[in-house]
Design goal:
The structure is a single chain. By secondary structure, the protein is α/β, with parallel strands linked by helices. It folds into two domains: 217 residues, 3-Layer(aba) Sandwich (Rossmann fold); 69 residues, UDP-galactose 4-epimerase, domain 1 (Alpha-Beta Complex), CATH 3.90.25. Helix content is 38%, strand content 18%. It has ten helices and 13 strands. A seven-stranded parallel sheet has the order 3-2-1-4-5-6-11, with helices on both faces. It has a two-stranded parallel sheet with strand order 7-10. Strands 8-13 form a two-stranded parallel ribbon. Helix 4 runs parallel beside helix 5, helix 6 runs parallel beside helix 8 and helix 8 crosses helix 10.
């Protein structure tokens, strides 16, 4: 039985990945300090006898000596606040989990001869001057602003991965994740999709920042997890970085109007001041993932939103 460690298992990505692995017969050790994750996500995993949960902070070295951390094959390091709402509320913890926590997971991976997937982010490109962004683009990140705690710590996490791979031949691959969504995204998460759908279903105004002309892309959770699995399985992915996201680009205003249409809401669209350092464009070049992994997303935004809206209706 393949044994995987998933950090951030109580979060959106971690809990969905854990559920997928458990249904395939994996043994899963889930780790989370429940700082931004939710216990309800763990409750969905507990019925599986091959699931074990460790409530712990991976920035503490003691995680490496935990008695459950034995005979590990795969490590998915997904722990970190991912929404500006959360990482700006806890900037020093965000920096720690993406740097010290990443080093600890790389040590664990090296110790067991396992393979690690590090969840980086499209945020490492900052406010890009090249569009779309390929993996060899160095980025345009502001180190002196409210998003820097996340952007720069994720970039340094990538440096740790590079050093462990180049110095110790540790098997590691890096996913630069662009916006991922589904009905499993917490309504209070603070990201644009969950905000729009929740506001529309409650009859509240849809909040658009700036003129809504900034662009984003949106990848459904199933496609993102498929990419993770392909990255972990492929020997060609070792020491490589991949953009993981949908290449179809939308303006934020287009997304707001689509949510209004699909929910049939009477909500108005209101405009507020654009936050500092909010990127004007964001779109992945996924040609590397297509050629090396044979991966590209299959679920279009309208289909994914329709699924999400139906589930949110039940929750609200």
């Amino acid at each position: 039985m393949t044994k995987a460690v998933i950090t951030g298992v109580a979060g959106f990505l971690g809990s969905n990945l854990a559920l997928k692995l458990l249904t395939e017969g994996y043994e899963v050790i889930g780790v989370d300090n429940i700082s931004t994750g939710r216990i309800s996500n763990i409750d969905k995993l507990n019925p599986f006898p091959q699931f074990q949960f460790i409530k712990a902070d991976i920035t503490q070295q003691s995680i490496l000596d935990n008695e459950k951390m034995v005979k590990i094959d795969e490590v998915y390091h997904l722990a970190s606040p991912a929404s500006p709402k959360w990482y700006q509320a806890s900037p020093f913890n965000t920096i720690s989990v993406n740097t010290v926590g990443t080093m600890h997971m790389l040590e664990l991976t090296k110790k067991h001869g396992a393979k690690m997937l590090y969840s980086s982010t499209s945020e490492i490109y900052g406010d890009p001057e090249i569009h779309p962004q390929s993996e060899n683009y160095k980025g345009n990140v502001n180190t002196w602003g409210p998003r820097a705690c996340y952007d720069e710590s994720k970039r340094l996490g990538e440096v740790y991965c590079y050093l462990y791979h180049s110095l110790y031949d540790t098997r590691v691959t890096v996913a630069r994740i662009f916006n991922t969504y589904s009905s499993g995204l917490w309504q209070e998460d603070g990201r644009v999709i969950s905000n729009f759908v929740t506001q529309a279903l409650k009859g509240e105004d849809l909040t658009v920042y700036g003129k809504g002309s900034q662009t984003r892309t949106f990848c459904y959770i199933e496609d993102t997890i498929t990419a993770f699995r392909k990255m972990m399985a492929s020997e060609r992915s070792n020491g490589e970085i991949f953009n993981i996201g949908h290449p179809k680009e939308y303006t934020i205003l287009e997304v707001a109007k689509l949510v209004k249409k699909l929910t049939n809401t009477t909500s108005n669209i209101v405009y507020k001041e654009l936050p500092e350092d909010d990127p004007k464009v964001r779109c992945p070049d996924i040609s590397k993932a297509i050629s090396v992994l044979g991966w590209k997303p299959r679920i279009e935004l309208q289909e994914g939103l329709t699924r999400m809206i139906e589930e949110y209706k039940n929750q609200i």
